Amino acid sequence: MKEKNGEHPFGDAGQLIWLGLFLVVWAGDSFFLRLSTFLSAYLLLYIRLAILCIMFITAIYLFRSGHIVVNREQKPDKVITSGAFKYVRHPLYLASNLTYLGLAISTLSLLSLGLFAGIFIFYNFLASYEEKLLEEKFGEEYRKYKEKTGKWMPRIGRNKSGAVSS
Question: How far is CA 54 from the centre of its chain?
Answer without folding.
Answer: 15
